[in-house]
Amino acid sequence: MNKNPIPYGRQDIDDSDIEAVISVLKADFLTQGPKIQEFENEFAGYIGVEYAVAVSNATAGLHLSVAALGLRKGERIITTPITFAASANCARYMGAEVWFADIDPETYLICPTKTRKLLESKPEGFFKGIIPVDFAGLPVNLEEFRKIAEDFGLWIIEDACHAPGGFFTDSSGNKQMCGNGHYADIGVFSFHPVKHIACGEGGMITTNNENLYKNLLKLRSHGITKENMSENHGGWFYEMQLLGYNYRLTDIQAALGITQLKKNPKGVIRRNEIADNYKSAFNGKVKYQTLPDNSYNAHHLFVIEVENREGLYNHLRNNGIYAQIHYIPVHTLPYYKEIGYDGADLSNSENYYKRCISLPMYPTLGTEEQEFVISKVLQFING
Question: How far is CA 8 from the centre of its chain?
């Protein structure tokens, strides 16, 4: 039994993070202050995108994204079943329908071939958009999905919650950072504590479209703007131009996000070192996510597949290793089951779920801790 429990993921908070938060607590603004814009600018620079909008969490970011793109009641979007429910729920918030395209069994990402087949099975205009997910930190090849989107008149929201620092290389040889807006209309990131950048809660929306950016700013804060102020109005004047939400991030969280962001480049390198150690130990013994030649995985997760998943899960927990399962396929959750997906062929996702388990993956995971995890996995696999 390991003396100190080993979680599947955890935040890394050091003195620089604590000092940044304290400085805001001593300043004039706890929210709606200068740290928000600073964080947005720093994040946009890191990703290589024109605009970034900080929000209260990634679920809020997804909700605002579909709202800004004009998704309406009764319209339809496509996403992957292997994701957190929020990737689908955002469409339901607008009264839209969610359809699922199956995953590639090697990458665990939404399959472009399956997506195209689903689109071709319906009349023109049946779907409005696609929400591909950079699952586990592995980038979706959005160049391929952009071609699909153009062929069928769709928008793309990249759910990059697992992947700040990940990228793929497109056919022109250009590195495309996750969420940089080159192929997707909008990107969304998460700052939950187990993610790369921890703000307690928080999220970021990224885009290169100025009109979407301005709309997102309004939607984030009740649909209110002061952009039409003139000499005929006092300094208190504002307009509510549309029905928005209170999805603002605080300056406290933004200050933490700024210091966390600075550590992410090194954190992603460390995550890949950990992934390489797992691959070296498990090669030929355990299946894990394939890494395409043109991709750099940001590794929010390291997922393996085993025959007796529940047995391994319990074996690891008995040894103080708190592995996790990512994810129960969204279409099998009670809410979505009631909607009905009996006719959909999502067998790759369902087969993956029967076997998947996420091992500890975070930058502060020690070498001895990882060796202990590996030894316990192999002990179970070898009987």
Answer: 17
